[in-house]
Amino acid sequence: MAQKNSLFPNLNSNNNGVSSDKTELFDKKGNSRGFYSKKNRLNDLTGKEWQYWSKSVINKSYPVNFQHKLRNQHGGQKPPQLCADLIQFFTKKGMSVLDPFAGVGGTLLGANLCDRKAVGIEINKKWVDVYNQVCKLENIEPQDMRVGDSKELLNKEKNESFDFILTDVPYWNMDKVSRSNGKFKKADQEAKEKTKSNLSKFNNEVSQTKDEWLKDMEDIFSLSRPLLKNSGYMAVFIGDMYRNGKYHFLSSDLANIIEKIGFTPKANLIWYDVSNKLQIYGYLYDFIPSMIHQNILIFKK
Ligand SMILES: C[S@@+](CC[C@H](N)C(=O)[O-])C[C@H]1O[C@@H](n2cnc3c(N)ncnc32)[C@H](O)[C@@H]1O
Hints:
about 300 residues, Rossmann fold, eight-stranded mixed sheet, two-stranded antiparallel ribbon, 12 strands, disordered N terminus, binds S-adenosylmethionine
C-alpha cells in the first residue's frame, strides 16, 4: 500500500507531521490559535484564523466600547474591533493604514488595537475633536489624524507609503433631489427620514445626484491609489439604499468606479450588524427591506 503523502513528501516536517516552517501560536489564555507559517506574506494569522477570516459573511458581535456614546454622535462610526479584524487580515504588525474618510476614527482606533500605524483624514473638525477626546479618555496614543479635504491632503502623501487602505465612504445624500420629486410613499418616507436623522448627525453635506456622489468618490480613490503599495489591499464600507420606491445598488455602482480606476475587485464581504434592530416599513402593501447589513468591498492594487 502506498505511503500516505508519498507523492508529496514533506521534507521539512517534524515528528508530528507539521512542517518546520510552521509554529503553533497561543492566545493570552493559552488556547491554540493554530499554526503560523513563516511563508505567510500577507498577515500574522495562523491557517485556522485565515480560514475563519476569509468567510464572506461577518456576523461577529462587536462590543460597544471606546466611548461609544461620544462616537455615536457621528452616526456612521464603525466598531474599532471590526476595523482591527480587517486590518489584521490585510497587514502585518507595524504596517501602515490610510483612511481618507476617517470620521471619529474607527480605523485609527482599530489600528491601535493591533499595533499598526494609521493616518486618517476627516473634513469635519468636530469629528477629529471627538476622536482626540476618545483617545484621551481611553489613554490611547492618538494616531496621525488630520483635519481637511482628502481631495487636497492626499496629494501631499508619498506614493506607495501605505500597506492597506481601510475606509468608509460618506453616504450619498440625495435628500434635496428626492424631496423635489415630491412623490414619496409613506413607508419610503419613513425609511428616508430614519436614515436622514442618522446621517445628518455626521455631516452638513449638501445634497447631490448619484453621479455627483460617484464623481467625488472617483476623485478621492484615484488620489488614494498611488499611495498604496503595489499588491496592497483596500477595504471599503458601503451600505446600499432603498429610496424613492427602489433599491440603489450603491455598492455595485461604487465597485465599478473603483475597478475603472485600476483596482482589482476581490470580494464583497457582508457585515451583518447584529446590533441593528429590525424595522418595519412597507407592512401590508409593499416590500421594503430593513437594512441590517453593510458591504465591505475588497480590492487589490
Ligand atoms: C461614513 S463616515 C466615516 C466613519 C468612520 N468609519 C468612523 O468609524 O467614524 C465618512 C466621513 O467622511 C467624511 N468626509 C466626507 N467627505 C470628505 C472629504 N472630501 N475629505 C475628508 N473627509 C470627508 C465625513 O465628514 C464623514 O465623517
